[in-house]
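User: Design a sequence. Structure:
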């Protein structure tokens, strides 16, 4: 059985001038460069560019890079027309950062020129966004439940109505931007031939006078790159999965789609094949039980031999003084069994923002929370 040993752990406190209420929601880095960029809900982008002599420091200063609100045309009288900024990716094909808000604003940022441009706007808002592995296509879920694929020069190539691909007794859960079910998850297969979606649904009313069931049920759907419906996530006997979570990630080896499930008051990581059949799972240790914890995100490393699972505390139980930490677990597989190899606990006051693997070094993870940047340099896998 292989062991995963951290050779070096670096933690930097991030000092910023932003208001503590202006949460950091995403980060991006340029492969081979020391620069990292942090996006806040307001649209502020802050940059971290440590020099060699800074690597031994205990804290690093975040510098204001630019403010996305300067490049978005206001709509009507709403001063916050750009909405809440949520997504930021560095697209090497364009040599730019691409940022998006829940209100549908799309802005590109030229890193060298330190300049931005609004390249489009989705009037009905955005619920999810994901770039294909080759960065030639961008998948979007709109606020009205349409799935779009665009080219990297912003031309709509394909689109479909998601609800038309659901079973006849199920409809999309049309939530508001402030609802926890507004955001959904998109991910591409590494070869950019398929895209998977995890989105909240609910049962349709059975009659004109009957009120529908408002309980949200997550569904996993698989589409081709041309948005032809390919498969619906289900058990091997064809039954639906009633307690699926919202996390989703497709392994770099293209074989498994990872998601999560709540069952018997326990959290599970579950796997789907491309045909939608659920195939395999492992159980999260019982100390992280729902509803006190939920799975925040799942991230495969580039060689698909390590799966990172972020566990986020909920507000349930806090009134009793039960204070909990965010956790990132690293799991490996051997002979179809999964083993927990590392566990990274974050400070009680610092909730996890995002987690990403290094694109070049298969065993180098990076975790960012509200106040810290944490890197495990090349864990050794025996």
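Assistant: Done.
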């Amino acid at each position: 059985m292989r062991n995963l040993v951290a050779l070096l752990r670096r933690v930097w406190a991030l000092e910023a001038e932003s208001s503590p209420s202006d949460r950091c929601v995403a980060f991006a880095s340029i492969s081979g460069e020391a620069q990292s960029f942090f996006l806040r809900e307001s649209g502020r982008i802050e940059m971290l560019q440590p020099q060699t002599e800074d690597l031994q420091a205990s804290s690093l200063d975040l510098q204001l890079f630019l403010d996305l609100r300067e490049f978005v045309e206001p709509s009507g009288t709403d001063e916050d027309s750009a909405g809440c900024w949520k997504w930021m990716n560095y697209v090497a094909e364009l040599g730019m950062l691409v940022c998006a808000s829940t209100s549908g604003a799309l802005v590109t940022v030229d890193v060298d020129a330190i300049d931005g441009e609004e390249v489009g706007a989705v009037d009905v808002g955005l619920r999810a966004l994901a770039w294909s592995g080759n960065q030639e296509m961008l998948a979007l879920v709109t606020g009205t439940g349409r799935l779009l694929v665009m080219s990297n020069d912003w031309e709509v190539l394909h689109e479909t109505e998601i609800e038309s691909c659901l079973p006849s007794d199920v409809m999309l859960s049309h939530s508001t931007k402030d609802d926890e079910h507004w955001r959904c998850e998109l991910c591409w297969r590494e070869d950019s031939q398929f895209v998977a979606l995890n989105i909240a649904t609910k049962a349709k009313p059975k009659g004109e006078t009957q009120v529908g069931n408002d309980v949200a049920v997550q569904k996993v759907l698989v589409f081709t790159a041309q948005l032809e419906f390919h498969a619906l996530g289900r058990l091997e006997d064809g039954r639906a999965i009633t307690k699926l979570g919202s996390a989703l990630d497709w392994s770099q080896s293209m074989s498994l789609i990872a998601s999560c499930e709540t069952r018997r008051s326990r959290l599970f990581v579950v796997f789907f094949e491309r045909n939608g059949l659920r195939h395999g799972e492992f159980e999260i240790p019982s100390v992280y039980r729902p509803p006190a914890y939920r799975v925040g995100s799942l991230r495969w490393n580039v060689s698909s031999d390590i799966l990172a699972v972020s566990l986020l505390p909920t507000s349930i139980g806090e009134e009793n003084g039960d204070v909990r930490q965010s956790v990132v677990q690293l799991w490996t597989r051997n002979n179809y069994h999964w083993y927990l190899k590392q566990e990274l606990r974050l400070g009680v006051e610092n909730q996890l923002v995002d987690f990403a693997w290094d694109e070049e070094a298969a065993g180098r993870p990076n975790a960012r929370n509200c106040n810290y940047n944490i890197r495990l340099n090349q864990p050794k896998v025996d």
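The first strand starts at residue 4 and ends at 5. The two ends are 8 Å apart (CA to CA).
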